[in-house]
Design a protein that fits this description.
Layout (H helix, E strand, L loop, with lengths): L14 E6 L5 H11 L3 E6 L4 H14 L6 H14 L5 E7 L6 H11 E11 L18 E4 L2 H6 L4 E2 L21 E8 L2 H13 L5 E6 L2 H10 L12 E2 L5 H9 L1 E6 L10 H8 L3 E4 L15 E3 L3 H11 L10 H4 L7 H5 L3 H9 L1
Parallel strand pairs: 1-2, 1-3, 3-4, 4-5, 5-6, 7-8, 7-10, 8-9, 10-11, 11-12
Helix pairs in contact: 3-4, 6-10
């Protein structure tokens, strides 16, 4: 069921070209909203399939070739031009554009867009993690980023945090959900996360925890060869070799009082999980110090754990895991501080309104 939302941007009958990554199905959520508005939408993946991308990326590093993705980009350009609607596109949106080049973007703008088309770029990653370091965005009429630090350092970029989808909208959770857990977390396996999760288990025996990491079998085999100590005697209460379904993740978050979200140590932008936690009105524990910069931050709803690498080193050296003790019922059971007007600003519908405004 499409939720009630007062759209401020009229996209009815508009032809929209989008180049973006396939990322946990979020492209489908964006597609659904735009179709509900009456737009005609064409999606293209911004990168070759993952295995091929990694091979090309490694070849680029080895042979120091800066045009390793040339064939992919030319094929993408040709498909877009061949499949464009009569008259061209009204909007051209690129999200991240990790392997796109200036020449390819300009050719698409010249050959696939209407003369008065609007072009939009969104940095769904920090500049440091993108191959073009944000420079590609300067080819577009409007540019936004999810990274508050990049926005501060680049005045031509607007800060636009990520969003939560309808599945994580508290107003659409019709059936009451029992809080089976105090804290939950579901994420991809990274050594730093596994290390912190083990520390949380050690430090919080009095709390109901559900801490889950997905470790792809192919990644496990690779790590077993390169770093066997890392994956020796894995805690299978934490690690799963089977991927987690989206419904499982949602239900786990809904059945908890708080969500733990450990992003990469150098991540500055807020994760999707942070936004989803806001959407379902659950408390949050995170290691992202930049959360405090946002309008919805409230210390009654969120706790930021800092300097975790050093704290983990100390805990493993001394056996004292007190730095990883999570807040007890005094914080957990305190009512969630609500601000409905602010919360609604971070739905996928509001996000797209901001993007296309």
């Amino acid at each position: 069921m499409q939720p009630e939302f007062e759209y401020t941007v009229d996209l009815k009958y508009k032809n929209i070209l989008i180049i973006m990554p396939k990322f946990y199905g979020y492209q489908a959520k964006i597609h659904d909203d735009l179709i509900a508005r009456g737009a005609n939408v064409a999606f293209y993946d911004e990168e070759p399939e993952k295995a091929k991308f990694l091979i090309l990326k490694n070849l680029e590093k080895i042979f120091k070739k800066d045009n390793i993705f040339k064939k992919f980009n030319e094929g993408l350009r040709d498909r877009i031009i061949a499949e464009m609607p009569a008259g061209g596109y009204d909007y051209f949106l690129v999200i991240r554009g990790n392997v796109l080049t200036e020449d390819i973007v300009n050719e698409i703008k010249e050959k696939a867009l209407k003369p008065n088309a609007k072009t939009i770029f969104y940095a769904w990653d920090s500049f440091e993690n993108m191959r073009h370091k944000g420079e590609l965005g300067r080819l577009f009429d409007r540019r936004s980023t999810f990274d508050s630090v990049d926005a501060k350092n680049n005045s031509d970029y607007e800060l636009l945090p990520l969003f939560y989808t309808d599945e994580f909208d508290a107003n659409q959770v019709t059936n009451p959900v029992e809080n089976k857990y105090d804290y939950v977390s579901v994420a991809a396996f990274y050594p730093f996360r596994y290390r912190y999760f083990k520390a949380l288990k050690e430090a919080n025996p009095d709390k109901k925890l559900a801490l889950k990491l997905y470790l792809a079998p192919s990644v496990y085999r690779g790590k077993k060869l390169k770093d066997p100590k890392l994956v020796k005697n894995l805690d299978m209460d934490i690690v799963s070799f089977a991927p987690f379904e989206a419904e499982y993740i949602r239900n786990l978050c809904l059945s908890s009082k708080a969500v733990v979200d450990f992003a990469q140590e150098n991540q500055q932008g807020l994760t999707m999980r942070t936004m989803e936690t806001l959407g379902i009105k659950r408390k949050l524990v995170t290691n992202n110090i930049y959360l405090k910069d946002y309008e919805f931050y409230n210390e009654d709803n969120a706790m930021v754990m800092e300097d975790l690498p050093a704290k983990a080193d100390n805990a493993e050296a001394t056996g004292d895991y007190s730095a990883f003790v999570l807040p007890d019922a005094t914080w957990l059971d305190k009512p969630y501080v609500e601000n409905e007007e602010t919360r609604k600003k971070y739905s996928v519908h509001a996000w797209l309104d901001n993007l296309f405004k």
